[in-house]
Amino acid sequence: MSFKKLLTSAVGRKFTMGATGLFLILFLIVHVGLNVCIFANDGGEMFNKAAHFMGGNWVPRVLEIGLFFFLIVHIVQGLMLEMSNRAKRGIGYARSYGNRGSKWYSRSMALLGTLILIFLILHISNFWLPNRVHQGFLLGEEINLYERMKVTFSVGWIVIVYLLGLIALAYHLMHGFQSAFRSLGVHNIKYNKLLICIGNGFAIIVPLLFAMMPLSFYFGWLS
Questions:
Q1: What burial letters (b/e) apply to 180-215, b meaning 16+ CB within 10 Å?
Q2: I want to staple 153 with a disulfide (CB 3.0 to 4.6 A). Which of 104, 167, 209, 217 is the partner?
C-alpha cells in the first residue's frame, strides 16, 4: 500500500487510526505511571524529579514530537472516517437497532474524541505549555509542576472539566482499544474476548488513576 493510499483509502485510514491509537495508548501508560508519583505524598519531590527528567531528557523530547504528530494524524483520520461513514450511510436505516447493533460509544467516537480534544487543550495550556515557555525564556529552569497542580486543581470548574474529559476518554478507550488491534489485523475469535476484557480494564483503570489526581488535590488528600 502506497503512502497516499495509507492516508486516503478506507482500509489505510483504519490502519493509520489503529497504529496511531496504539502509540497514544503507550503514551497513556507512561503518563499515568508518571502521575502516580504524586501519591508518594512527599510534597511533590518524586513527581517533580520524574517530570523534570521527562522534560529535560532529549529522548522524551524527540518522542514528544512524535506524540503530537501521531495525535494530529489520529484526529484528522478519525474525522475523515466519520465524514466518509456519514456519506456512505446516506439515508438511515428504517429501523434503529440501538445497542443491539453496536454500543452507543462505538457510534459516538467522533463526539468523544472532540470532548477529549477540548480536555487536552485545557491540559496543555495549564501544564505543558507554561513549562516549555518557562524553560525557553529562563534558560532551562523548570517550574514546580506539583505546586502548579495544587493551584490548578483547587478550582472547581477545572476539576469538573477534567473529570468529564476523562469519562469521555474511558468510553473512547472502551471501543478504541480493541478496535486498534482489529485494524492492525489482530482479529481471532479465540482471543477476542480476552482482548475486549483487557481493553475494558484499561479503559477503566487508566482514566480512574488520572481522575484521582485532580480529586486528590481538590479534596486535600495530598500534602
A1: bbebeeeeeeeeeeebeeebbebbeebbebbbbbbe
A2: 217
Q: Match 523534570 to its residue by C-alpha cell.
A: 52
φ/ψ of residue 2, rounded to 5 = -70, 165
Report residue 76 as a C-alpha cell. Answer: 484528522
Alpha carbons 221 and 223: distance in angstroms, whole number: 7
Angle between helices 109-123 and 156-183 (to 10 degrees): 130
User: In 130-149, which positions are buried (b, 16+ CB within 10 angstroms) versus exposed (e)?
Assistant: ebbeebeeeeeeebebbeeb
pTM of the model: 0.83
Name 216's Cβ contacts closer than 8 Å, sequence gap at least 6.
38, 39, 222
Please report, in tens digits, the pLDDT of each residue of the chain (223 residues total): 566 666 667 777 888 888 899 999 999 999 999 999 999 989 999 999 888 887 667 777 788 888 889 988 888 888 887 777 777 655 444 444 455 546 777 777 777 888 888 899 999 999 888 877 776 555 556 788 999 999 999 999 999 999 999 999 999 898 888 888 888 887 777 778 888 899 999 999 999 999 999 999 999 998 7
* Side chain identity at residue 14, one-letter code: K
**Cell (9 digits) for 155:** 478550582
Backbone angles phi, psi at 140, to 5 degrees: 90, 0
